[in-house]
Amino acid sequence: MDMWLKEGQIENAAMTYKIKETLVRKKTEYQDLAIVDTYSFGRMLLLDGIVQTTIKDEYVYHEMIAHIPLFTHPNPKKVLVVGGGDGGAIREVLKHPSVEKAVLCEIDKEVINECKRFLPEISCALDDARCEIFVGDGIKYVHEHKNEFDVIIVDSTDPFGAAEGLFGGSFYKEIYDCLTEDGIFIAQTETPFYLPEVVKRVYNDANAVFPITKLFMAGIPTYPSGFWSFTVGSKKHDPETVDLSNSIDIDTKYYTKKLHKACFVLPKFVEDLTK
Ligand code: AG3
């Protein structure tokens, strides 16, 4: 019997994957968590039925959400990841030798535990001595830490339901205060194909708080439309014009210095959302 998983984040469109095996499925305090093995993308993490990451394409998202801000900042020492309990963003952050401490603030400890068990390729850096894990609410954590982080990465689920508070002006103001004087913030900000109004609203909210706000795109096959946006808010350093000629080489599969510049060149319909 064939078993198919259907992700239906978007009304009237869906993505389907043929499943080999369900490795874990449980209701946590916060959500329905599943890790399944699929034929086309390998093991996959789902939260409330929404695909979060897969073994086959996770590198795109994790490299871009980490390396764009970390290579933009001249000397990132303290980094905060809000959400991201799978550990993929932390793994990329810790490829930067300047980073002395990377804090993971994840609300659901089951996500961390199950990803450590079933997605070791992604969660491998969570045991690094420079990584500090804090299980709790990201909004509260950011509010209680002022002027502390050089880079803040918001690696959240979609902006509906539980993660709604992690998008929008009031949270971005808190992020601004949690950053050091030349700090940089980045968030995953959905697809402009299906959710242009969300992309536009989030961009405008960030732009109202940060002197420099930039949007870029990356190709992520397992997210709706495969065409995903990220928004960067920066106090001083411009991610698009930063000089990368002396930046160190790290091992990546998607990110390159050339792509760092090129990803900010937007198709017209996306550029229009930033006006
Ligand atoms: N965070 C979720 C990205 C949004 C996915 N949305 C969707 N599939 N509809 C990814 C967590 C990876 N660390």
TrEMBL record:
S-methyl-5'-thioadenosine binds at residues 31, 106, 137-138. Spermidine binds at residues 62, 86, 155-158. InterPro entries: PABS, PABS_CS, SAM-dependent_MTases_sf, Spermi_synthase, Spermidine_synt_N, Spermidine_synt_N_sf. It catalyses: S-adenosyl 3-(methylsulfanyl)propylamine + putrescine = S-methyl-5'-thioadenosine + spermidine + H(+). Its EC number is 2.5.1.16. GO terms for cellular component: cytosol. GO terms for biological process: spermidine biosynthetic process. Residues 2-235 form the PABS domain. The active site is at residue 155. Pathway: Amine and polyamine biosynthesis; spermidine biosynthesis; spermidine from putrescine: step 1/1. It comes from the Bacteria. Pfam families: Spermine_synt_N, Spermine_synth. SUPFAM superfamilies: S-adenosyl-L-methionine-dependent methyltransferases. Keywords: Cytoplasm, Polyamine biosynthesis, Spermidine biosynthesis, Transferase. One of its GO terms (molecular function) is spermidine synthase activity. PANTHER family: SPERMIDINE SYNTHASE (PTHR11558:SF11), SPERMIDINE/SPERMINE SYNTHASE (PTHR11558). Catalyzes the irreversible transfer of a propylamine group from the amino donor S-adenosylmethioninamine (decarboxy-AdoMet) to putrescine (1,4-diaminobutane) to yield spermidine. NCBIfam families: PRK00811.1, speE. Homodimer or homotetramer. Belongs to the spermidine/spermine synthase family. This is Polyamine aminopropyltransferase.
